[in-house]
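Figure caption, in words: inputs first, then the predicted bound structure.
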Amino acid sequence: MQVHNFEKIWLGAAILLIVGFIATISYGTVGAGIQMVDDSGGQISAQAVQNGESGTAFDDPGVVRQNDSHYVVYVVAQQFQFVPGSGDNPIRIPADTRVTFRVTSADVLHGFSIVETNVNTMVIPGQVAEVTVRFDEPGTYGLVCHEYCGAAHHTMGGSVEVVPRSQYDYQEVSD
Ligand code: CUA
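Bound structure (dinuclear copper ion present):
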């Protein structure tokens, strides 16, 4: 069989493209510190969260210190705010420390996205979304709901204040 040079070049280019596509998909899946949000956060009753009777840390959401190098942030998303996160109640966490966000919804589907980071998850009522990150750069990061959740969806946002680790003072919330 005779294959023309011109055809060989096209064949080569097509194979290169396919290999290139597979490489970029592979990199996007396992490279660049990208992790999928799975179901490891577990399930919870949205109604119980709304009533503050879930018997979990979501009844009094906020930052919980596990140890010096690991903090867990419990956040409740509800029409149309993050608690904590929205209004004059930003989420304050230390830089250079492992931080696990556990986010759930008290009503409908919301989103939880921290601007300029790869923290981005849906917040599904009945489920706890769990994302673990480390912020290298102190600063104030925007927090947005990026899933349509009702008439005031566009107003649902907040902020995350990442303070240098040495300046972080954690106050145990007690009641
Ligand atoms: Cu909550 Cu959009």
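The helical segments are 5-30, 46-51.
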